[in-house]
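Hey team,

Filing this mostly as a record. A colleague (T.K.) asked me to run one chain through the structure pipeline before their review meeting, and I want the input and output archived in the tracker in case anyone asks later how it was produced. No errors, nothing strange. Just documentation.

Input sequence:
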Amino acid sequence: MTNSPNQGHADGCLRVLVLGSTGSIGTQALEVIAASQSIPRNLVPSDLAGTADLSTVNGTIDANYTSLNNVRRIKLGSVNGTLNLLLPQSPNADVSASAVNGSISTDFPLTVKGHFVGKSVSGTLGSGGVEIELNNVNGSIHIGPGRGSL
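Output structure:
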């Protein structure tokens, strides 16, 4: 794993570049994650408390947020895998989710904006706020309560 200051980026994010070819990669208690390249296998970040931009080609992402207080944006993507976004109870977020060949589900009440288009949905959790973008090609997307948030 390599980490370096995110030079040249206005948002001042810390860049964490995780490289691996097999197995699972776990991260814990990272304030900000901005992955600049796709992760080839499973990614299981927990206790997240900042902006995330994570993607995988052939693996699952299980991202667990214990708080959304300092979060502006969460972006998760996969080509062949599952996206599980775990949030604290009663989250406030604006959600956009798209799955080409898979399902989209949530355990939270989602107020849909407009209408469902194919396997895409946009909506609001609570009063909105955090921008959440979830994209998957061949796999499901799920949003639910996180570990430690019950």
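Quick notes for T.K.: Confidence is low (pLDDT under 50) at residues 1-40. The first strand starts at residue 2 and ends at 5.
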